[in-house]
Design a protein that fits this description.
alpha/beta; Rossmann fold; seven-stranded mixed β-sheet
Amino acid sequence: MSEKEVNWKYADDLVVEPEPIAAARQHALELGIDAVSPAVGAQLALLSAAAKATSIIEIGTGTGVSGLWLLCGAPKATLTSIDADPDHHAVARTAFTEAGYATGRVRLIAGKALDVLPRMNEESYDLVLLDADPENVIEYVEHGLRLVRRGGLVLVAGALAGGDVANPAKRGAIATGFRTLLDEVASSSAVLSALSPAGGGLLQLVRR
């Protein structure tokens, strides 16, 4: 194990996940869903708290791991979560309920994100989390920047594509798409950007 891998593992192991999140993570493992790592989850909670988020939207509900982390940081926020798999929503709904979040605080929308996002109101959210369909990441970010208020956050999980982005020999569509996105936001005057290597990578954008 390399020094970087040791550091990443240490960062994950340092996080003590609340029981509802640990249970949701176990369900994700059972269903074969790649949930955000504990270290990335802790960053999501910190960022939602720093943003004082009251309105959050995420693409990719999974079993609720990322949504629960976001609400840990912003316990008074309303979360809208989109996922194409209704079975995921059933598991996630149970996770949110068991964590004590009322039904009206968590809005689950079943459908393909590219069909749902155009219908969402622009500049209506404090924070947008994108954690689904990496092949569509550039389109998701475009929608995210439309939906988030000025000064709000757009977060992209898995932005290092399992290490493929950093390896120039990897020329698949997903790795190339993330490289293109990272290059564009790094030189854009429309956003402030930072890339955390924790977990699968977390791209953080603030809309200017």
